[in-house]
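This week, look over our next protein:
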Amino acid sequence: MKRRIFDIIQIGQKGDFASRAFDLGIVIMILVNIATMILQTFDELANYQNVFVAAETVTIVLFIAEYILRLWTAEYLYPTSHRAKAVLRFMISFDGIIELFTILPFFFMSGFVAFRLLRVVRIFHLFRINSYTDSFHVIKSVLYEKRNQLVSSIFIIVVLMFASSLFMYSAEHSAQPQAFKNAFSGLWWSMSTLLTVGYGDIYPITAIGRIMAIFIAFLGVGVVAIPTGIISAGFVEQYRKEQDSTNNDLQRIHTIIIGIDSQWLGHTVAEIEQQYPVNILLRQKGKYAIKADSNDVVSLEDVLTVYQYEEPHIQKKSQS
């Protein structure tokens, strides 16, 4: 039962109705919880506060139940760890922290401001909706693969921000000491200029300051383009990898009809997979096609759907 609960609360497969229904319920709960938090900020809807509180209470109770189930089944999520360590690993994981911060503010609504601010963390629950699609996994893989380049580009941005702040302080401090009091007072201006087009609250008034501002603005265009180009190139590479992988997988899937002279006739699926570089996916007998079991014996006129491994795997498996 514990293993079955773990399978249900994880991202479900298409054939598992209970797990897919659980996924849909989680998505609905997240949307209701976020919508309730947003609607509570409207003074025009003050008459419906009781409804909002009830909806929030129900969703939080369900989140608590889900959190407890995930702690209970954490040993299946981390099978190589002991039970206590598996529970701890889930609690400090991204999903575990988000779920805990989603629950805690509900019990401290009238407490410190910091606890009330934790309600904003609930918005990160929306990432779980994306986790049910392959697109979110593509984004994570791209960011992970390009992490070194992204860190380098962020470092360049930080260096340019501090450099432009120092330059602007040197040029503008004597002309407007209130706006540029010290070296760090120009940091807000440099950030808004490098990453956007400036907010207009702080701006240079001297000739040399304006000249430097022009060059810094041009640098900002190039600086923003660096991480954008890295991420864009990563998406293209990842898309090509997935396309190539899909095409290769399709090319390695074959349909084999077992005849009287077949070497596989009378052997079990496990024996065939051990001796040959294939994985038998489906076994069709007459009108019915079922998933191949390792103990199934291949008989005459069976139709097998097999996946043939690529060359390195063939050599390895043939030797074994």
